[in-house]
Amino acid sequence: VQGAGKALHELLLSAQRRSCLTAGVYESAKLMNVDSDNVAFCVLATDEEDEGDIALQIHFTLIQAFCCENDIDVVRVNDVPKLAAIVGPSEESGEPRDLHCILITNPNEDGWKNPDLEKLNYFCEERRNVNDWVPTIILSE
């Protein structure tokens, strides 16, 4: 699992550099509605205070169902501050952004192969083999 955390960290940094990262529950839902074929990976993030947020849990259930239906791998992260440290604030406004859902999309460059994305796809496939459909990843420091 440690390797998956490092791979996720690197994938988020790489996707951000290539402008292939969409952050926010509503922004992600809009993107999936318009261009689901372009979504390569999904990260759902919560903290302890989010556990009682019923609306957020409903959004997560719908996003997970959509991802499963469209063969998009999904993982959970239970550390929003660590995620924020990796992806940082919004580039446009400099404001903190909603990191409860992050989508990694395929860049327009043909043949962009990301070894970290491949590692995470393999990790998710392995977890599904033991009926862990939305595995939790621990982010490294």
TrEMBL record:
<dbReference type="GO" id="GO:0043410">
    <property type="term" value="P:positive regulation of MAPK cascade"/>
</dbReference>
<dbReference type="InterPro" id="IPR024824">
    <property type="entry name" value="GADD45"/>
</dbReference>
<dbReference type="InterPro" id="IPR029064">
    <property type="entry name" value="Ribosomal_eL30-like_sf"/>
</dbReference>
<keyword id="KW-0053">Apoptosis</keyword>
<dbReference type="InterPro" id="IPR004038">
    <property type="entry name" value="Ribosomal_eL8/eL30/eS12/Gad45"/>
</dbReference>
<feature type="domain" description="Ribosomal protein eL8/eL30/eS12/Gadd45">
    <location>
        <begin position="7"/>
        <end position="88"/>
    </location>
</feature>
<dbReference type="GO" id="GO:0006915">
    <property type="term" value="P:apoptotic process"/>
</dbReference>
<dbReference type="Pfam" id="PF01248">
    <property type="entry name" value="Ribosomal_L7Ae"/>
</dbReference>
<dbReference type="GO" id="GO:0005737">
    <property type="term" value="C:cytoplasm"/>
</dbReference>
<comment type="subunit">
    <text>Undergoes concentration-dependent homodimerization, which is required for growth inhibititory activity and enhances interaction with PCNA. Interacts with GADD45GIP1. Interacts with PCNA.</text>
</comment>
<comment type="similarity">
    <text>Belongs to the GADD45 family.</text>
</comment>
<dbReference type="GO" id="GO:0051726">
    <property type="term" value="P:regulation of cell cycle"/>
</dbReference>
<comment type="function">
    <text>Involved in the regulation of growth and apoptosis. Mediates activation of stress-responsive MTK1/MEKK4 MAPKKK.</text>
</comment>
<keyword id="KW-0221">Differentiation</keyword>
<dbReference type="GO" id="GO:0030154">
    <property type="term" value="P:cell differentiation"/>
</dbReference>
<protein>
    <recommendedName>
        <fullName>Growth arrest and DNA damage-inducible protein GADD45 gamma</fullName>
    </recommendedName>
</protein>
<keyword id="KW-0217">Developmental protein</keyword>
<dbReference type="GO" id="GO:0005634">
    <property type="term" value="C:nucleus"/>
</dbReference>
